[in-house]
Amino acid sequence: xxxxxxxxxxxxxxxxxxxxxxxxxxxxxxxxxxxxxxxxxxxxxxxxxxxxxxxxxxxxxxxxxxxxxxxxxxxxxxxxxxxxxxxxxxxxxxxxxxxxxxxxxxxxxxxxxxxxxxxxxxxxxxxxxxxxxxxxxxxxxxxxxxxxxxxxxxxxxxxxxxxxxxxxxxxxxxxxxxxxxxxxxxxxxxxxxxxxxxxxxxxxxxxxxxxxxxxxxxxxxxxxxxxxxxxxxxxxxxxxxxxxxxxxxxxxxxxxxxxxxxxxxxxxxxxxxxxxxxxxxxxxxxxxxxxxxxxxxxxxxxxxxxxxxxxxxxxxxxxxxxxxxxxxxxxxxxxxxxxxxxxxxxxxxxxxxxxxxxxxxxxxxxxxxxxxxxxxxxxxxxxxxxxxxxxxxxxxxxxxxxxxxxxxxxxxxxxxxxxxxxxxxxxxxxxxxxxxxxxxxxxxxxxxxxxxxxxxxxxxxxxxxxxxxxxxxxxxxxxxxxxxxxxxxxxxxxxxxxxxxxxxxxxxxxxxxxxxxxxxxxxxxxxxxxxxxxxxxxxxxxxxxxxxxxxxxxxxxxxxxxxxxxxxxxxxxxxxxxxxxxxxxxxxxxxxxxxxxxxxxxxxxxxxxxxxxxxxxxxxxxxxxxxxxxxxxxxxxxxxxxxxxxxxxxxxxxxxxxxxxxxxxxxxxxxxxxxxxxxxxxxxxxxxxxxxxxxxxxxxxxxxxxxxxxxxxxxxxxxxxxxxxxxxxxxxxxxxxxxxxxxxxxxxxxxxxxxxxxxxxxxxxxxxxxxxxxxxxxxxxxxxxxxxxxxxxxxxxxxxxxxxxxxxxxxxxxxxxxxxxxxxxxxxxxxxxxxxxxxxxxxxxxxxxxxxxxxxxxxxxxxxxxxxxxxxxxxxxxxxxxxxxxxxxxxxxxxxxxxxxxxxxxxxxxxxxxxxxxxxxxxxxxxxxxxxxxxxxxxxxxxxxxxxxxxxxxxxxxxxxxxxxxxxxxxxxxxxxxxxxxxxxxxxxxxxxxxxxxxxxxxxxxxxxxxxxxxxxxxxxxxxxxxxxxxxxxxxxxxxxxxxxxxxxxxxxxxxxxxxxxxxxxxxxxxxxxxxxxxxxxxxxxxx
Amino acid sequence: xxxxxxxxxxxxxxxxxxxxxxxxxxxxxxxxxxxxxxxxxxxxxxxxxxxxxxxxxxxxxxxxxxxxxxxxxxxxxxxxxxxxxxxxxxxxxxxxxxxxxxxxxxxxxxxxxxxxxxxxxxxxxxxxxxxxx
Lengths: 1088, 133
What we know:
heterodimer; A: mainly alpha; four-stranded mixed β-sheet; 64% helix; B: alpha+beta; seven-stranded antiparallel β-sheet; 2 helices; globular
């Protein structure tokens, strides 16, 4: 028997099954859950429902509560319980046999049956409930009902039924008491009906309600309407639907003709784009995260379209947030930081014992007050940035676990570099969490960093939709114009022709013309100028301050704005002017073009005065942080206070470096250099930042310029400069030869300064010893270290000095081929780095020890060192180093014959590399996977992995990898392909870390294998003999020590995966040769 | 500083030429004037002995420049510097060999001799590569 479950959600909840009342448990959540499922057809993940209904409960408890509620619902539904489908993952209320009054209301409204639709609304949605989602849905259904009532009133008025129109208008005001447009309509209709007293009473109620509920006064258009309370004259523009246009040459249009000054306009002409975006939202809601992009020229409606999607998603239960860059260049991560802070709801708590929450606190200091974050672990910028990004990814997952998340990154074309890098990182990690990232951007002028970010997301399959908005059709523009003002058709037609499909221009032009002061061809700047002219001095000043501020301002910031006697009153007036809008708790321009137009019209001297006042205001506030320094510097610069601006720019750069935003730091310092009368300081900082960005030429250019500005007699400054350069050439860039020059210069300066701090000399000596050990003369390194001894004997060294000495001593020994002797100093260096709170430096020392042990052939010891590296990098979020460590562990395990464990380590390496999303790191893992497969005799797999490594441009020896690929192909029976790879080797770039002197021997061996496979015995023997001779010449320990150093310089890591073992290769070739020349008993079956 | 460039074309593949260029022990087979190379050479640092002067060691360095895809051989005694570069021929199989030579001012008088030696060596390298692979 077919059952029909009827749910009456308007008013008090009533549920019946074939007209028999259903007795649901009295608990609100059970009833709320039923209605939510009824209003949102389709399967819903349990996790989402838990987040929605039990947001503050731990996951396990929320799931238990959900199970309990579903059980109660089943009991209540009785024979209709089958309508509730559940499994381990999802819950769904089957829609076929369920009728819901709210959905029926939507259906009737969409079909145009407005009167039937409003009849269904017997009260507010779930009147007795107060859950978050209910309040949001109730507000939305109230809005829909208001729109339906407005339509009914308009239809009645145009049909001459003024009394009926008034009835609908009164009901609309009852339903939407804060809707100023509804209030105005009732005033207008009352006036039209000749009931002036009722009109004024309606105005009084509206004014009182706005003051009481929102703390604002009615807008100027409402006040103007009440002031006049008189019928239109014949030459005035017509009201919509009244049929007779007025003269096109009407010189002025009274303000009463404006339909709305600051209410959001309906969306016209974008239904196709809206549906495509909503399709994406529905996929996200079902659990598939993605990034979508909306591109269009300015004013074509990107923001309006996206706001519609956000609005709908919010009503569907999504958590939503919007971020936009400041117009005049903001702080690092500006696009994200407020958005992320906004997404965390009041009272929501982050897990207190996670590393990512601590890192997030650095990015969102305002939000950090919500939890007791501990101090994060220090690390070099390239590692620090990854940790911050990981923290954001975790945070997005945390937010989306409770409710799907929709975030909008507006105006990507103006985004700061750090925000783009974060988008590139986070955007590709979303596919399994319900997060929708909507991007908006203008296509021109081209910005390669934005294109690069989008290309990276596209390549990863994260960028799922790219919409390009075209100019709107004349019909849509006409609708927009009519929404703004009732103008004569000829004027309307001129606007449609003039604005060229641009809805922003259409809106502003219609308002401009409607005020009677302008012409349809005036353009945006004149339109904004006339909007300003209609305001009082305070209102205009407010708009100009907002334009100079260059971003949205919060209520608190508005209350403290300078130059205004009553900022709140000025804000209220300016909001009525129509150029601003309120978004959440902040006020800003409705569009950047409007802000720009107002800003451009401010005379230069006034502009400087505004920036001066804003700077003083900002400086006086007791705030700190990235934005403050950057913003203050900008205002000071634009106010002409260049020296103070330079000082603030240096503060901004320091703040940027704290969050690994090195591109912004470089930009700030570059500006500071131009503004500072004594730029040696900022130049040195710039040189350091550029080095950490890996830009040696830029770093050296800044450094050389700084040197010319430091007086030769200022030994302290010179010493500081050279020592700093030595440090960054060991960290940001590994350039030991240049580091050696720096330390030498520091030592030269020290020789001229008697009585200098001995630790400075120790640092210079240790740094130079390291540089000599890695890239110079190891004996000289040892001599330098002997010079250090008298300073350090019997003293407790500062940890970082102890680290430097240990590393230098260790590398000097390794370089000399005394690998085992190097372990001790390197272990001591690692301990010192750990004490100094630098796990990255401790890792580096232990990884060097692992490489040394591998070079010595002691793989058990190498494994011990690698495994001591892992706790330093995996739990501390040093993901790049984790890729190195796991790959190294896999290589050592492979050499020990523990291939199964090696494969496990490689899986962890691949996971870390995948999280990084840097193809070079993925290539590194492929290269080791190829070697593992080769060792296991899985030649086709090996060939595929080596090919993937070469395609990824990994930091590996390319000719060596290509030769290994040729070997895999040769041994896999693909002779022709192997020959091709051998030919390709000759065209690969070769550097010292490729061990060029060993490549010929390796090539000879592969050619020998190929010859043997084709039965060319003589050639095979000749090639293998040449290979054996080649390897035999390369077996000295000193040679291996030099190769070890080359590996560090060229590839940035000690040799583990890329280790070349001449002795082992020699033995291998010798055995293969023996198999050819004395086949009996040889284990090398592939040569027989 | 006196310099000159020379080039040769060989039907041999780049790999064949590459093996001769990266293996100092085979320089005696094509580099005119090289009598012997230290058999215990340590890869990129090795010692050549001029033809007829077995007691006159000339230590050399061989450096590979990854970005330029070239091999630079420098004599540590005379400061002569030879930069070799291989390119795939237009037919996609053969090889163009380029060499650039820097001669220090102090040894400018050796320019003509070196030009002749290198031209002859190039010819021999091209021919040897054809039969070597």
